[in-house]
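Data deposition worksheet. Section B asks for the primary sequence of the deposited chain exactly as it was used as input, without tags or linkers unless they were present during the calculation. Section C holds the resulting structure in token form. Section D is free text for depositor observations; keep each observation to a single sentence. Incomplete worksheets are returned to the depositor.
Section A, Depositor: J.P.
Section B:
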Amino acid sequence: MDGATIFAIVAAGFGALALRRARPRAYPQLESPFDADADVAMHVAGHEARQRDQLLTATHVLYGLVQDEQIAGAIRKTGGDVEALEDKILGALDREVTQAEADWTRRALATAVNVADGSGNPRRCGVVDLWAYLPRGEQTVLEAAKVDRTAVLFVLYHGAPAPVVDVIGGDVHVVLRNDDYTTRDFVCTVLRDVFALDDAAAETRMMVTHSQGRGVIGRYSAADARTKIREVRERAHASGYPLWIGIEPI
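Section C:
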């Protein structure tokens, strides 16, 4: 699948979505909106679809992604078996794919491209962006291979699994770090629900985190911090967000 074809697939999805930006950035001078690694993954996905005479779906894209060293490495860091996942993906492709799957994939690709372009540092869509949005529709395949999509996304973005909160006594600062995938609404919600901040304080701390890359929620006892961090991490994981929350010494 060449760059022009990929771009056409993605561009077609923009009209079907309410995207973050009112007017998505155009790429008239580029062969595709993907960076080099994502372009390779999409090429592999397109080749697999063509070989099977199928419409391009998220399953094909997932196959292309697991061939990428960064994706495969993150899967292994979280205890996943890349080879087992590849076998499950190929098994899932041994069936007739539907137009609905292809339409969903086009919209998911458009979202991934738009999020990359609308981030604080606009860029071409990469394999991490594709992993963030495409495997959501392949949860059954991932679960069958015992691969945790959100844990892999966390490692891809932050470089390592969430740190253990092992402080025993004393007070600590509870800290958030920004990422490109956790929504502002979700952050504000957990700040209100878990940390009992009012709307104005939650919005302020969320915006500091978003604009500066990190933000201090407040000062808490070690025991209270552990409890709150555990709850936020569980909520974030259940929602599919790679939200980093941890402690720093005062």
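Section D:
The chain is about 55% helix and 10% strand.
The CA atoms of residues 26 and 213 lie 27 Å apart.
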